[in-house]
Automatic annotation (TrEMBL):
The keyword Cell membrane applies. This is OadG family protein. The keyword Cell wall biogenesis/degradation does not apply. Pfam families: OAD_gamma. The lineage of its organism: Bacteria, Bacillati, Bacillota, Clostridia, Lachnospirales. Residues 1-19 form the signal peptide. It comes from Jutongia hominis. Its main location: membrane. It comes from the Bacteria. It is found in: Cell membrane.
């Protein structure tokens, strides 16, 4: 049983290898040698092409991105000088596309990296030019970007903490502004009346007090003053 399973797996592997080989051989337009030669020709023509004149003549018919790219290429031509030689070539291909990357040295001692992409027909579908950067330069730029990002994050956090710490001072300032409101209750005016001016009222009050105290005699009860409450 185990031998049969092993044999079946071997057959599947062989079929997969055959299928892979057939896929890579299907498109003859993506031949490495031909595309490498085409890329070398493209690179040499790039250094001799007048991008500035093209922009002046056809700017109205070009997109904004194309105009920006052509102006950038003009600056790169002036900065790096003429073509000197090809330093390195890298080829990569898929079932329907391929790309060739060439590192080129210039007369001014600098390097440029050309990446040309080809479609399934072997025609150029896209290309770009970049200044060559060593691994140290790339790592240095990446480290600088990391440090800047961390610095921005810490700056924002410090700013937020300062805002939060100011809240307690704002609360104290508000408490100082809010003074307690004192409620003043005016005392009811006391009016004293002269007993001699209202003898009848005195007699009625005296009788009422005697009745309330269950003492019919008013002897010993003396009303000295009457205070009216409002």
């Amino acid at each position: 049983m185990k031998k049969r399973i092993a044999l079946l797996l071997c057959m599947i592997s062989c079929l997969a290898l055959l299928a892979g080989c057939s896929l890579t051989k299907v498109n003859k337009n993506l031949n490495e040698s031909d595309l490498t030669k085409n890329t070398e020709t493209f690179v040499s023509q790039w250094f001799g092409y007048d991008f500035a004149s093209t922009v002046k003549q056809y700017e109205s018919q070009m997109t904004e991105d194309e105009v920006t790219s052509y102006k950038e290429y003009t600056k790169m031509q002036k900065k790096h000088g003429a073509f000197k030689k090809i330093e390195d070539t890298e080829y990569s291909a898929a079932s329907d596309s391929a790309s060739v990357k060439e590192t080129v040295s210039t007369e001014k001692g600098s390097k440029l990296v050309f990446t040309v992409t080809y479609d399934e027909k072997g025609e150029i579908s896209d290309w770009k030019v970049e200044e060559y950067k060593t691994i140290g330069e790339t790592m240095g730029k990446a480290g600088l970007n990391t440090v800047m990002s961390m610095a921005i994050v810490f700056a924002v956090l410090i700013f937020i903490s300062l805002i939060i710490s100011c809240f307690k001072f704002i609360g104290k300032a508000q408490k100082k502004e809010e003074k307690p409101v004192e409620t003043v209750v005016a005392a009811a005016p006391v009016v004293e009346e002269n007993l001699t001016d209202d003898l009848e009222l005195v007699a009625v009050i005296t009788a009422a007090i005697a009745a309330a105290s269950e003492n019919e005699s008013t002897d010993g009860l003396v009303v000295r003053s009457i205070v009216r409450r409002y």
